[in-house]
């Protein structure tokens, strides 16, 4: 199963996120209480960047129209968003955040 090395886990403080671009992928890498989650960065509702959104626990609020998503599942928590965001199976190996790309 192909893996993609995104960043160092140390780059992301608990309760925050960074944007990582790799080829065609534009991703948001979240640190939720020391656990790492990766989603598509682009909000499914508009041009908002989720890595720049407001994070409260395991929910991210888009900075564009204030829609909310569950960081762990990608499910919509609050409108106006209707379509879930894509999530990726995430692991941390040797201090690096990795995702499965299949």
Q: Care to give the gist of this entry?
A:
With 102 residues, the chain is mostly beta strands.
Overview of the structural elements:
By secondary structure, the chain is mainly beta. The protein has a single domain, classed as Rieske [2Fe-2S] iron-sulphur domain (Rieske Iron-sulfur Protein). It contains no helices and eleven strands. The chain has a four-stranded antiparallel sheet with strand order 2-3-4-9, with no helix packed on it. Strands 5-6-7-8 form a four-stranded antiparallel sheet, with no helix packed on it. A hairpin with a 6-residue loop joins strand 6 (59-61) and strand 7 (68-70).
Order of helices and strands: EEEEEEEEEEE
Helical/strand content category: mainly beta
Q: From the alpha carbons, calculate the radius of gyration and give it in angstroms.
A: 13 Å
What would the principal axes of the Cα set say about the shape? globular
CATH class: Mainly Beta
The share of residues in helices is: under 10%
- The N- to C-terminal Cα distance equals 7 Å
Provide the spatial order of strands within the biggest beta sheet. Answer: 2-3-4-9
E-strand count: 11
Query: Low-confidence parts lasting 5 or more residues at pLDDT below 50?
Result: none
Number of helices: 0
- In total, the number of domains comes to 1
Main sheet specs:
4 strands, antiparallel
Fraction of residues in β-strands: over 45%
